[in-house]
Amino acid sequence: MTRYSVFSLVRNGLKGHRAWPRAWRRAEPRRSYQVIVIGGGGHGLATAYYLAKEHGITDVAVVEKSAIGLGNTGRNTTIIRSNYLWDESAALYEKSLKLFEGLTEDLNFNQMLSQRGVINLAHTLHDLRDLERRVNAIRLNGIDSEILSVEQVKAMVPILNTSPNARYPVLGASLQRRGGVSRHDAAAWGLARAASARGVDIIENCEVTAILRDGDHVTGVETTRGPIKAPKVAIAAAAHTSHLASMAGLRLPIETHPLQALVSEPLKPLIDCVVMSNQVHVYLSQSDKGELVIGAGIDPYVSYASRGSLPVIEDQMQALVHLYPVVSRLRMLRQWAGNVDVCPDASPIISLTPVRGLYINGGWGTGGWKATPGSGWVFAHTIAQDRPHPLNEPFSLERFTTGALIDEHGAAAVAH
Amino acid sequence: MLLIPCPWCGLRDEVEFKYGGEAHNNRPLVPDVHDDTAWAAYLFMKKNPKGLHLERWVHAAGCRRWFNVARDTVSNRIDGSYKIGEKPPAIAAETEESA
Amino acid sequence: MAIGVSVVGRSFKYHRPRGVFSAGVEEPIALIQLGSGPQTQPNMPATAVELSDGLVANSVHCWPNVNRDIGALAQWLSPFMPAGFYYKTFMWPARRWMVYERYIRNAAGLGTAPTEADPDIYDKMHVHCDVLVIGGGPAGLAAALAAGRSGARVIVADQQPEFGGQLLGERLEIDGGPAMAWVAAALDELAGMDEVGLLPRTTAFGYYDHNFVALLERRPIAAAETGRLARECLWKVRAKQVVLATGAIERPLIFANNDRPGVMLANAARTYVNRYAVAPGNTVVVFTNNDDAYRTAIVLAEVGVKVPALVDVRAFAPGALREQVSAHGIEVLNGWSVINAHGGRRVRMVDVVALDEAGAAASGSRRSIDCDTVAVSGGWNPAVHLFSQSGGKLRFDNARACFVPDVSVQSERSAGSCAGIFNLDGCLEAGFEVGAAAAADAGFTHGARPKRPRAEAPEEQPMRPLLWVPPPSNGKRFGKHFVDLHNDVTIADIELARHEGYESVELTKRYTTLGMGLDQGKTGNVHGLAVLAEARGNPIPAVGTTTFRPPYTPVSFGALAGRDVGDLYDPSRRTPMHRWHEQAGAVFEDVGQWKRPRYYPRSGETMGDAVDRECLAARHAVGILDASTLGKIDIQGPDAAEFLNRVYTNAWDRLPVGRCRYGLMCTDDGMVFDDGVTARLGDAHYLMSTTSGGAGRVLSWLEEWLQTEWPTLKVYLNSVTESWATASVSGPLARALLAGLTKTDLSADAFPHLGVREAVVAHLPARIFRVSFTGEVSFEISVPARYGMALWTTLMEAGQAYGITPFGTEAMHVLRAEKGYIITGQDTDGSVTPIDLGMDWIVSKKKDFLGRRSLNRVDAMRPDRKQLVGLLTDDPSDVLPEGAQIVGEKLPQPPMPMIGHVTSSYYSANLGRSIALALIKGGRDRIGKTVFAPLVDRTVSAVIVKPGFYDPEGARLHA
Question: Do A216 and A189 sit in the same domain of this protein?
Answer without folding.
Answer: yes
